[in-house]
Amino acid sequence: MRKEKYTDYRKYRLNKKELLLYGSVFVIGAVLVIELMFDIWWLGVVLGLVLLPLFYKKLSAYLRDRRINSLEEEFCRFMQLTVAALAGGTTFENVFREVADSVSSEESIMKKEYYIIDRMICLNYDSRDAFSAFAVRSGSEDIKKIAAALACTSEVGGNVIRLLQSGVGALRLKQDTEMEIKRILSAPKMNHRIMSVMPFAFVFILKTMSPEYIKSLYSWPGRGIMVAVAVLIAGSWLLGEKIGKTRF
Question: FRET label pair with 141: which of 61, 70, 148, 237, CA 20 to 30 Å apart?
C-alpha cells in the first residue's frame, strides 16, 4: 500500500526558500521605492522589515487561493473520469483507484488525493466519508457542496451519476465564467499596473539625469508632496487590485 501525505489546502506554509526569496525581493523593492520617493534608503529597510509579516500573510493567502483553483480545475477533470467509470459499471468504492491508475501524470494533485481516498476505504472508512474528508481539506466551497450532496444522495438512494454530472457541470460553468472575467479584466489590470509604476520610473529618470531638478522634493515642503503622491499611488494600487479580484 503506497503512503500518501495528507495536505490541508486551507493553509499554505511558505518554505525556507520561498521565505528567503520573496522576503529579499520585498525588502529590496521597499528600499528602492523609499529611496526614489524620499531619498532615505534606511527608512526603506525599516519599513520593509516591519511590513514583512503582513507581506508573508498576503503572499500565503494568494498562493493558497491559486493552489485551490488548480485543485478545482483538476477536480473537474477527475470527476468526469469518475462519472464515466461509474457509468461503465465500476462501484463507487473502487472507482477512485481505477481513475487514479488511469492517469499517467505523477504530479497530479487529484491523483494523489484519489489514492488517499482509496487508502481510507481500504481501512474500512465509508467511501462517502473518505470523499467528504478530502472535501473539507480541499478548502473549496464548491467541492464541499458536492460532497455534502453526495452524502445526502447516498442516504436517500438517489442517482449518484446524475448528481456528479450536475455538480461538475455547475463547477465547470463557474470556472469558465471566471476565466472570461479574467480575460476581460486582463488588459485594464495591465494598464493599471503600468500607470502605477510610471511615477517611480519618471522619478528615477529625473534623479539619474538631472538630480538638481528634483532636489527640492527631498526637503520640506517638497517631501510632504511626495508623501501625498505615495499615498495616492498606494490607494489606487489597492483599489485596482480589489477590482481585479472580481469573481463569479
Answer: 237
Please spell the DSSP secondary structure of 186-247, one letter per residue: HHHHHHHHHHHHHHHHHHHHHHHH-GGGGGGGGSTTHHHHHHHHHHHHHHHHHHHHHHHT--
Alpha-carbon span 158 to 149, nearest angstrom = 10
Q: How confident is the model at residue 17, as a pLDDT?
A: 92
> Which parts of the chain have pLDDT scores under 70?
1-5, 244-248
CA distances in angstroms from 18 to 14, 56, 107, listed in the order given: 6, 10, 20
pLDDT value of residue 189? 78
pTM, to two decimals: 0.81
**158-161 own/partner pairs: CB under 8 Å, 24+ apart:** 160/86, 160/92, 161/83, 161/86, 161/87
Retrieve residue 121's grid coordinates: 476505504
- Kindly report the CA angle at 67 between 63 and 71, in degrees rounded to 5? 170
pLDDT for the residue numbered 43: 86
- Report the pLDDT value the prediction gives residue 2, as an integer from 0 to 100: 47
Nearest to 134 by CA among 74, 91, 81: 74
- 102-116 burial, b at 16+ Cβ within 10 Å, e below that, comes to eeeeeeebbbbbbbb
